[in-house]
Amino acid sequence: MTDGDVAAFTHLGSSVREALSERGFATPTAPQRLAIPPLAAGEHTLVIAPTGSGKTETAMLPVFDDLVADSPEGFGALYVTPLRALNRDMRERLEWWGEYLGLEVDVRHGDTTQYQRGKQAKNPPDVLVTTPETLQAMLTGERLREGLEDVSHVVIDEVHELAASKRGAQLAVGLERLRELSGSFQRIGLSATVGDPESVGQFLTGGRPCTIREIDVGSRIDVRVRQPEITDEDQRLSGELATDATTASHVRFIRDLVAENESTLIFVNTRQTAEALGSRFTRLDLPIGVHHGSLSKEARIDVEDRFKAGDLDALLCTSSMELGIDVGRIDHVIQYQSPRQVSRLLQRIGRAGHRRDQVSRGTIVTTRPDDTLEALAIARRASAGEVEPAEIHDGSLDVVANQIPGIVQSTGSRHLMEIRDLFARAYPFRDLEESALRSVLSELHRNRIVWFDESSERVETTGGTWQYVYANLSMIPDEATYEVHDIASSGQIGTLDERFVTTFGQPGAVFIQRGEMWRIVEIDDEEERVRVTPIEDPVGEVPSWIGQEIPVPEPVAQEVGEIRGTVGSQLETGADDGAVARDLGGRYPGDDTTLLGAVSGLRKQLEGETPMPTHDRIVLERQGRTVVLNACFGHRTNETLGRVLSALLGQQSGSSIGLDTDPYRIELEVPTDVATSDIVTVLTETDPDHVGTIVELGLKGSDALAYRLSQVSAKFGALKRWQGSGRMSNERLLKALEDTPMYAESIREVFHEDLDVAGASRILSRLRSGEISLETIRGRTAIGSAGRSGGKELLVPENADASVIQTVKERLQDDRVTLLCTHCREWYSRTKVKRVADQPECPNCGSTRVAALSPWADDVLQAVQANSKDEEQEELTRRAVKNANLVQSHGKRAVVAMSARGVGPHNAAQIISRLRENEADFYRDILEKERQYARTKAFWD
Questions:
Q1: Is residue 657 located within the same domain as residue 696?
Q2: In what order do the strands lie in the sheet with 481-486?
Q3: Local structure of residue 239 (DSSP, 8 states)
Q4: Which of 215, 230, 256 represents a domain boundary (last residue)?
Q5: Number of domain units in the chain
Q6: Which domain covers residue 574, as residue numbers?
Q7: Residues 792 and 845 both lie in one domain
Q8: Start and end of every Helicase C-terminal domain (predicted)?
Q9: Cβ atoms within 10 Å, residue 308
Q10: C-alpha span between 863 and 882 (Å, rounded)
Q11: Which residue among 361, 383, 405 closes a domain?
C-alpha cells in the first residue's frame, strides 16, 4: 500500500474508516484517490469515471462522514438518479453503510406508498435516494419542505445523462429552489466520460466554482473492430435461423465471443435490433437475455437477477444498460454495429473489468463498409479521449413554464424579477431574457395556470395551479401508447408509441417487433390500436421505420472522410489492398480481415473512375430523378443542408422534394425539370447566414414541428391532450400557435436536437471559399448506393402553385373518417384518411363494401347497425350503401374525395370519372368542388 493509497482514506473520520475495513475496502480505487480529498473538504465536485469503478462510494463516503459528525434533523443528503432502477440499486448499495454507521437510508419515487411517504415527511431519513421528478413533488409539500431545510449534500448520479436533457434543465431550477430552502449545500456530480467537463460542472453547480476529478477512461479500454466473414457454418446456420448468411455470420460470431467469456453485455442501438437479434439467439436456445426500456419492470429485474446469478451468459441490451444498474461483474462488452458516438462507446465498453482498475475490453461487430469505417474512427477517438460535448438545453421555455407554477405554489406570491433571478442562477437559464419570461407568464396567465398582474409585476396562484403542478412533474413527453394486435389471432403482440404512429404509421408500412416483421393493416385512433399482419417471407421487405437513430457527430463523419481520402490516394498510386490495409492497421484497431474488407469496399468506388467522397470533397451523383450528395458531415449537418436544398429547389420548381439523409449522404428525389446545375447553384450561392431562416420556413408545415408543438404546448397548459375527434389538425395547430412562446420553443428544440445550423452554414462558407470541392457525375457509385432510402419527408415549397395543391392534399389526408362495413354492419373504425388502405376491407367479414363516413355521422352509423325499417333510417342506410359502393369500386381515391368539404358520393363519382392520371389534377378537381360548395352552401338549407 503506497502513501498515495492511504492518503485518500485519511480524510475520513474513524467511524467511516472502520466501516471501510469491515467492508473489505483495503485500498481506495482510482476515483476515490482523486476525489475523496476535495469532497471531504466540502467542495462542489464533478467525478468522472467509468461505470462500475466505485463512483457511488467515492461520493457517499465523505457525505456519510459528515452526517455522522453532524446528525441532521431533516433530510441530510439527497441522492438523485435518472432511473427508478438505479434507485433500487443505490438503496441496496447504501443501506449496509447506513446500518453500520447508524444512518437511515430510504428511497422515494412515483411508486412509493402513501404510508411510506407520510413516514418520510414526519421522520425524514438521513439519506434519501430519489428521482428528479420526485424532487419536484417534494418541493411543493409543506412538511417535506421543512425536512429539506436541513439538506447539506446533493449527489446527482449520471449527471452527463441529465445535463443534455430537459429533465436536467428542470432539475437545475429545482436545485436553486432547494437552495432557497436550505441555503448553500455541497453538490456532487457523478458522470461517465464527457467531452466538456467544465460545462457539465457549471451545469451541476449553477455556474459556481467546481472541482473536476477525472479518470482517463480512454487509456483503460481495449477495443477491437471486427466484421465477420461468412463461413460454411453460416450458410448452414442461415436455414436454421430463417435468415441470410450475412446475418447468420453476425449471430455466430457473437455466440462464439460470448462463449469465450464468463459474462458479456451485448449492446445494440435500437430496441428493434434487440428484438431481432434476441429472436435469433432464442432459436439457438442460447442463455442470452434481452433488456430494454419497453419491457416491463418485472421482466427487466428478472433478467438482471438471472445474469447476476450466472444463469445467463449474456444480456442483449440497449442504452438501458449504459447507466450504472448493478448486474455483477462483466468480463467483455460487445457493441453490435457502430455505437455512432464516442461517448456511447466509452460508457458501454467502460462497464467491463474494474478489478483494481483493470482494462475494459470490448469488440465492435460491424455489418457493412460505412459501419466498419465509422467504428474504426470512433474506437481511435475513444482511446485518444476525443469525446463529444454534452449538449445542454439552454433556455428551454417549456421548462420555464413548467417551473413557475411550482415556484408560486410552494412559496406564494413572487415578483417577476425574483423569479427571473432564481432562473438565472440555474446554468441552463443564465441568459434568460426578461422579455422571454414575460411572454411565458402571459401565456400561463391566459391559460389560467398562474395569475400575472402586469401592473404590480407579481405572479400568484390560481385555482388551476395546484392541479397543473401535480399533473406536470416530469418533462418527459406524455405520449399515448398504441396496442399492436395480430389481425388473424386478435392477440396483442406489443405496443407502439404515439410518435411512431403519428409520423410513420399508415396501412402498408412495415416495422419490426418481437423479432418479426409486420405490415400495418389498419390504425384505429379512437381505440389507440394498430392491427397488423405478419410478413411470412421478409426477403426484400424494408421496414418503414427502424427506430430513432443515434446521430453521428460531424467530427466522426469527417474522420471517416479522411480515412476514405487516405486509402483512396494510396490505391490510386498503385498500392495493393493488403499493403493499404496494413498501413490502416497501424492507426486503427481492426484485424487484418476487417481492414482488408474496408479497403476493398473503397476500391469499388474507384473502379468506375469516380471520385472518392472525402472530408473535403462532396461528390454529387445523379440518375434520373434521384440525386445523392456524398457528404461526410454527420447526421445533423446533412439533415440541415438537405432541408436547405429541399426548400430552395422546391421553391424554384413549385414541386415537393423528397429528402433522406444519413451521416455520409443527402439523397433527394427531384422533378425532372430540376437540373444538376440548379443543385450546384444552391450549394455554392446560398448565403450561409440565411440557413436558419430557410430551414425554419421549411419546417413551418411539417408534421415533425407540429408534433413537438403539441408536446411543448401541453407544458404551457395551452391545450389538453389530443383525444378522439377533438384533436386539432396539424395545420390548424401550427397556424393557431405561430406567434407564441410555444412555437419559439418548438423551433429551438428541433434546431437543438435534430439540426446543426452552424455546421451547415460553415459547409456552405467552405464551399464558397474552395476549402471543400464539389464534383458532379452521372449515374450511381458504390458509396452513393450504399445509403438507405426509407422515410422520405416531402417538404412543401412556399409561394408556389404546387404548394396549394399540396396543402389540400395534406389537409384531406389528415382529416378523420369513420369506416363502416355495410355488409356485416358490425365493424366500424375511426381513423385518419392517410391511414386508410388502398382498398379498405372489413377485418370481421372480409367484405370490401366499406363506407367512408364523416367522423360525426353517428346517425348513419346507428341507422346501418340498427337495420331499422324506419323510413328516415332506411334513407340514411341507402346513402351509406351508395358511399360503400363507390369505395368498393375506386378504393382510397373515393375515400379522399368524399372527405372533402361538401363532396358527397355524387360529386365524388364525378371527380373520379374524369380518370385523372396526374395526382395534382385529381386534387385540383376536389378543390374546385370545395370552392363550388363554399359559393353555394347558403342555399343548401
A1: yes
A2: 492-497, 481-486, 529-534, 516-524, 510-513
A3: H
A4: 215
A5: 6
A6: 558-606
A7: no
A8: 253-398
A9: 15
A10: 14
A11: 383
Q: Look at residues 470, 432, 471, 477 and name the one whose alpha carbon lies nearest to residue 139.
A: 470
What does the alpha-carbon distance between residue 523 and residue 520 come to, in Å, rounded to a whole number? 8
Measured CA to CA, the distance from residue 871 to residue 877 in angstroms comes to 10
Please check whether residue 100 is in contact with residue 160, taking contact to mean a CB–CB distance below 8 angstroms.
Answer: no
Unique residue bearing C-alpha cell 419536484: 136
Q: 874 and 814: one domain? A: yes
In the structure grid, which three cell numbers stand for residue 156, read together?
Answer: 446527482
Same domain, 163 and 231: no
Identify whether 391 is part of a domain.
no
Backbone angles phi, psi at 904, to 5 degrees: -95, -170
**Angle between the 84-101 and 55-69 helix axes, to the nearest 10 degrees?**
40
Q: What is the model's pLDDT at position 396?
A: 95
Place of cell 445523462: 161
Share of the chain above pLDDT 90, in %: 53
Residues in CB range of 368: below 8 A, 6 or more apart: 786
CB-side neighbour CA atoms (13 Å) of 754: 19
Distance set, CA 893 to CA 729, 805, 905, 908 (Å): 21, 15, 12, 9
Asked if residue 212 lies in contact with residue 48, where contact means CB atoms within 8 angstroms, the answer is yes
Task: State the maximum Cα–Cα separation within the chain, in Å, rounded to a whole number.
Answer: 100
Same domain, 51 and 198: yes
In the chain, what are the helix, strand and coil shares in percent, each to the nearest 5? 50, 15, 35
Residue with cell 399533473: 471
Q: Check: CB of residue 726 under 8 Å from CB of residue 526.
A: no
> Looking at this protein, which amino acid is placed at residue 217?
V
Ramachandran region, residue 84 (left: φ > 0; alpha: ψ -120 to 50; beta: rest): alpha
CB 290 within 8 A of CB 304: no
Provide the grid cell at 865: 347497425
Give the cell for residue 421.
433571478
pLDDT number for residue 527: 77
What one-character DSSP code corresponds to residue 619?
Answer: E
Q: Best-predicted range by mean pLDDT among 482-496, 661-675, 708-722?
A: 661-675
Measure CA of the first residue to CA of the last residue in the chain; give whole Å. Answer: 96
| E-strand stretches of 761-890 | 773-778, 793-795, 816-821, 828-832, 850-853
Task: Give the integer Cα–Cα distance in Å for 220 and 50.
Answer: 9
Note whether residue 389 is domain-resident. Answer: no
Kindly list the distances between the CA atom of residue 351 and the CA atoms of 56, 309, 394, in Å, as whole numbers in the listed order.
14, 17, 30
550 falls within a domain = no
460, 450 Cβ separation under 8 angstroms = yes
Q: Is 117 exposed, middle or buried (0-12, 13-18, 19+ CB in 10 A)?
A: middle
CB atoms within 10 A of CB 104: 15
pLDDT attached to residue 295: 66
Cβ contact 241:352 at 8 Å: no
Indicate the SS3 state at residue 400: helix
Cα–Cα dist 819/833, whole Å: 10
For residues 196 and 237, state if they share a domain. no
More confident residue, 719 or 335: 335
Lowest mean pLDDT among 133-147, 349-363, 394-408: 349-363
Q: Is the domain of 228 the same as that of 256?
A: yes
By DSSP bridging, strand 793-795 and strand 657-662 are antiparallel
Contact 708, 459 (CB under 8 A): no
Q: Which amino acid is at 120?
A: Q
What span, in angstroms and rounded, lies between the C-alpha atoms of 588 and 603? 19
Amino acid at 889: S
- Alpha-carbon gap, residue 97 to 103, rounded angstroms: 8
Q: Could you tell me if 56 and 201 lie in one domain?
A: yes
User: Exposed (0-12), middle (13-18) or buried (19+): which is 145, by Cβ within 10 Å?
Assistant: buried
Residue position matching grid coordinates 483494481: 356
DSSP strand pairing (450-453 vs 626-630): unpaired
The cell for 494 is 406489443
